[in-house]
Specification:
By secondary structure, this protein is mostly helical. The chain contains 9 helices and no strands.
């Protein structure tokens, strides 16, 4: 896995050539692990907050009430209770927020650092599977803040995922090592 990670960063902007399934998936898994590890402080703090929420009677009673279907359409009551509980949770001061902020910043930096290499390895993987490299666009378009575009791109992203799972179109060696 470490070899695939090094190989992915060595060819971080090389959109030519091919990547095998193993190279692609090892790179994707390794980069996601790095991002999750960077975000670990934030994830731990969020889990503590959810645990705090689930122990509070006000929050749990919102979902045990017979009006649960009405809450699906009007979430103002849930937002009000969660805001109130959040203020109670963080009433100890700003000191508890630094792990969350640090984790989120580290996770964003890591995600930005692997964005171009991930696009490049995906393009190479699609080419290796015999599909058009343009199939890399649907996952990118999921970030567009237009609901219609985002939903359509999400469905098409599943197609891209399936294409990345396909066998190589023809057996070719992986990218040659650089000198």
């Amino acid at each position: 896995m470490l070899k695939s990670l090094k190989e992915g960063f060595r060819h971080y902007a090389d959109f030519r050539g091919r990547s095998t399934r193993a190279m692609f998936w090892n790179f994707i898994i390794a980069t996601h692990l790095v991002i999750w590890l960077c975000m670990l402080p934030a994830l731990v703090e969020f889990m503590k907050f959810y645990h705090f929420l689930l122990q509070d009677v006000r929050f749990v009673s919102l979902f045990l009430d017979s009006k649960t279907l009405a809450l699906a359409y009007d979430t103002s009551m849930v937002e009000c209770v969660v805001k109130e509980l959040g203020e109670e949770y963080f009433a100890g001061g700003v000191a508890e927020l630094w792990p969350v902020l640090l984790g989120l910043v580290l996770g964003c930096v890591a995600a930005l650092a692997v964005a171009v290499p991930t696009l490049a390895v995906t393009v190479r993987r699609l080419r290796d599977a015999g599909k058009s490299p343009w199939w890399v666009l649907p996952p990118v378009l999921t970030m567009v803040p237009l609901p219609v575009v985002c939903h359509l791109a999400s469905v098409l992203s599943l197609v891209t995922l399936v294409f990345c799972c396909l066998r190589s179109k023809e057996e070719l060696p992986p990218l040659p090592p650089e000198n």
